[in-house]
Amino acid sequence: MRTNARVAASQAMRELDGVIRAHLSALAEALPALENETDHLAEWGTALADRLAARSRLLAIGNGGSAAQAQHLTAELVGRFAVERAPLSAICLHADTSSLTAIANDYGPEEAYARQARAHARPGDILIALSTSGASANVIAAAEAVDGMGVTTWALTGRAPNPLAAVCDDAICLYGPSAATIQELHLVALHLLCAVVDSRLVPTIASTPLPLAADRS
To answer: What are the boundaries of each domain within the chain?
Structure first.
């Protein structure tokens, strides 16, 4: 009986190992698409650093996992990524849950970000829209809402062409076999964006990361 249990447990572990290896293999195969966009990301990071240094702001939007990544990005900018620098103005529009839910309730879910974008955006600001599909209606509506307001719109999406990339001023479209892989590529892209911002604003120490929080205690 014990032998059968051990055999079953061993088989289960092999199956789990296969799942893990397949996921990592998919990510490894998708990474070259991100590597091809490094110059593009450097352009974005440079532009973002210059705008933020000039007191403009970043607005970030997304749904689900992309919302979490949008909030991760704004946290890195308002707080810090790898080096000490002044806080930078970055607002994640889904983080104001009272506004988000009130607008969705009163005006419909497609207006959830668009109305906030019209309220907060100022000439010179950047709106970055994250969507693995590039087809999220409320994200597309927000990009369209700031058209003509002097706001630069960037899309970070999955495979091109897609509707979000089409309505934004610029887009980085990263292909992966699943939404999970695309989101993982997006997270690395956002970290690279933050690294460029740090390097642009604090060039003398950008290559010297802060110690981990545990090491500073």
So the answer is: 32-200
Topology of the domain covering 32-200: Rossmann fold (3.40.50)
d(CA 144, CA 142): 5
pTM of this prediction?
Answer: 0.87
State the Cα–Cα distance between residues 4 and 189, nearest whole angstrom: 47
**Residue-level pLDDT, tens digit, the chain, 217 residues:** 566 666 566 676 777 788 999 999 999 999 999 999 999 999 999 999 999 999 999 999 999 999 999 999 999 999 999 999 999 999 999 999 999 999 999 999 999 999 999 999 999 999 999 999 999 999 999 999 999 999 999 999 999 999 999 999 999 999 999 999 999 999 999 999 999 999 999 975 444 555 555 554 4
Task: Note whether 80 and 47 are within 8 A (CB).
Answer: no
